[in-house]
Write the structure tokens for this entry.
Amino acid sequence: MSDLQKEVTDLERKSATAARLFDIRRIIGGLFVVYGVIVTVAGITASDADLDKAEGININLWTGLGMLALGLFFLTWLWLRPAAAPGPEGEGEG
């Protein structure tokens, strides 16, 4: 294998790793989990005055749990169906 072929193979491997690393499901899932934890903690520590403003519904708790569920859904989806490595550009043609 020539040096050029080795370099191309190495770049393809790095490209596939970058594609998996920056998968949008990872970013969205991670943000929803982080914000979900913050909002859930705010809901757990809500005062009676906060609950009275929302007519007795602990909206922060329910919203935080929903955000956690959505974030975990995205991360589970990423784990069950990882991004496929991009193939070489001429593949499938002709």
